[in-house]
Write a structure and sequence with these properties.
3-stranded antiparallel sheet, two-stranded antiparallel sheet, 9 helices, 5 strands, 6% strand, elongated
Length: 287
């Protein structure tokens, strides 16, 4: 089976001076070694602002003043999603931070004389815990429902074990390569994780055993040539996308019928150490 090649959409040609400066800013971020994920998020959030500006006839950066940005901030506060719910303060914050970075960059590059976002006050954020946190018994139930006699079930069991044992982020799980695994030493190497930093993460004995079993028995049945050594593969033999990984974990959580919803990130929020006979796994509020 041939690997499917995704065709990139051609980048839209900037129509206004301010759109052109957004493209310049995104290229500057890439040159500074920001991750593709960060650059894409900045493009989305700045793009929302540019669409709002376009609807009001604002096309040049010198037209953007602090009162304009405060109007946009009020727009975010009153905005309603398709389901009628407002944007959370965290979402509003995420929309505004890229604008502050962008306008600071434009000022330093002398595209504008004054930074209108320098004194923009961002929404205050609380530090609330997730609504749903799994108990050790609930996690065990989720894992035990995986059909480990089948390649996909064994793969999912390994994914859940590694998530719970290490607290890796979704993108870190997706990017794992076979040569990043040092299971004999109880370590996993995360390359270019948060902040573009490499780090070693300890993995518990049980999770390592399930991961070894998957790599030895199930992965060869999923892999196709050319094999890029990605650890976790889809049924088509391809690396996971972000949405596919989230959907896979969510399906396993839903199947356990715990009355709780969530996906990969919930496995990062287990308070304290998880102890399984014969091992202790670090999984305490990983940051």
């Amino acid at each position: 089976m041939a690997r499917i090649t995704k065709v990139r959409k051609p980048q839209a040609v900037p129509e206004t001076p301010i759109e052109s400066l957004m493209q310049d800013h995104l290229r500057a971020l890439a040159v500074q070694n920001y991750s593709a994920h960060t650059v894409r998020n900045r493009q989305v959030h700045i793009g929302f602002f540019l669409q709002w500006c376009k609807e009001r006839g604002l096309t040049d950066p010198v037209e953007i003043t602090r009162p304009v940005l405060e109007r946009y901030q009020r727009h975010l506060f009153h905005y309603r999603k398709k389901n009628g719910e407002p944007l959370s303060f965290r979402s509003q914050h995420s929309c505004l931070v890229p604008l502050r970075v962008w306008f600071r960059w434009m000022t330093r590059q002398n595209h504008i004389l004054h930074n209108p976002a320098s004194e923009l006050e961002l929404p205050r954020l609380g530090r609330a815990l997730p609504k749903n946190i799994f108990s050790a018994q609930e996690v065990e139930r989720i894992m035990q429902l995986c059909e480990v006699e089948e390649p996909i079930g064994l793969r999912d069991r390994a994914i859940l074990e590694v998530l719970y044992s290490t607290g890796l982020r979704r993108m870190e799980m997706i990017a794992l390569k076979l040569y990043d695994l040092s299971l004999d030493r109880g370590l996993v190497l995360v390359r270019l994780g948060k902040g573009q930093k490499d780090r070693y993460v300890p993995i518990g004995e049980r999770a390592a055993a399930w991961l070894q079993k998957y790599v030895r028995e199930a992965r060869p049945q999923l892999a196709i040539e050319p094999d890029d050594m990605t650890v976790f593969l889809t049924a088509q033999g391809e690396p996971f996308s972000r949405d596919h990984m989230s959907f896979t974990v969510k399906e396993r959580v839903d199947a356990a019928q715990l009355g709780k919803t969530g996906s990969c990130h919930l496995f990062r929020h287990y308070a304290g150490f998880r102890t399984i006979p014969g091992e202790c796994i670090f999984a305490a509020f990983k940051q």
